[in-house]
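Continued from yesterday's entry.
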Amino acid sequence: MISDVLVPAGGQSEFWTEERCFISELHNCPQSPEASLAVARVEAGVTTQLHRLDGVTERYILRQGEGILEVDGVSQRLVAGDQAIIPAGASQRITNTGAGDLEFYCLCTPRFLPESYVNLEGGKEP
């Protein structure tokens, strides 16, 4: 029997989203509804889809690369090691301005659920 404190490895590898980035979910499960953690990877020259997360605060922690983060129309340059706090409901997108991949942790509270994602560009949601 597996304890309630153990979350077995999910076995899911990196996947592409229509948000125009790759995601690797590190922690996102019903046993821990208060938070989720993923790594996002944005290729050089790419800007992610303008979107918001309803009811979810997101924090970016840059692992590598550089980019410009836009939150509610305000842009800020970010480099590896920088952190950003994106309030629930704020419009957001990030542009990779470097020559290589931009990678960052996405820490969401409460945990990310697909229904919290709102595409602000119109069209199909990821």
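--- second protein ---
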Amino acid sequence: MIEIKKKKMLFSRNREVIFLLLFFFSFTFYGQNSTFWKKSDTLNKKRRNAVIISESILGLGTLVALDQLWYADFPRSGFHFINDNNEWKQLDKVGHMMTSYYIGRAGMEVLHWSGVKKKDQLIYGATLGFTFLTAIEVLDGFSKRWGASFGDILANAGGTGLLVGQELIWKEQRITMKYSFHQTEFSQRRPNVLGKNFIEQSLKDYNGQTYWLSANIWSFNKNSNFPKWLNIAFGYGADGMLYGTESVTNLISQDPFRQYYLSLDLDLTKINTKSKFLKSVFSVINFIKIPAPTLEIDSKGRFKFHYLYF
């Protein structure tokens, strides 16, 4: 019994790992589906049913696990909202947006593999990220320690909107969301909040996270000779944060500021290779922004050039 309680507490302290695993699952599934599995030209009911059952089991199982292994450790309450829109320079919201985008993209792709018509792919597949993440907001809403966040729900909707909007306008994803991370000194000063190791820090230390909109240049002019794999990327980050907000009750002083980036990037899925293995790998890791020369300007008006920015 003691061992079970220890495992439960260990799990509860690392709820973010669930999101990371789900995040990587969607990429892996999407990458393998795009390269190794032959897509059906017509509706394949067996595939469609397998997708529906698999997604239902995964989604409901994850929600039940969260409820029992995370929320059960904290007091329950009546459903309520909180306003956390001013925290962490909104980087947590951008993270919600990106997760919603990619889970929805994976959901849309597996329905495409099943031969489901495009309209239903967008209705039932592309909205998967918004549905799942908003269900987690409901669980937050019944927790006394947290609460549902309007900002998180709007961010979830933003990620789905980016996905669906491009499919409606261009019938493809010309602009994708990407992520990069580098370790910072701030996690050493508040390791319990910002992470004790690289994995935790990549999830919790917003100072080292950068989120990107990476646009494929060739896709906007397909008659050109421009390299199909070259992108231009616009990034957003922040630095100097030890706490989510600036408050007189903070025990350590901080000087947070926003950062904006302009850089080059690669669309790995457009690199020409005959290797199915490499195509799969490229599809899986394409959410990572490739290190490249980068121009930075921050909210204090300072410019900086990085020869290689991670």
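The beta strands are 81-82, 148-149, 175-181, 209-216, 230-239, 257-266, 292-298, 303-309. The chain is about 45% helix and 15% strand. Will compare against the first tomorrow.
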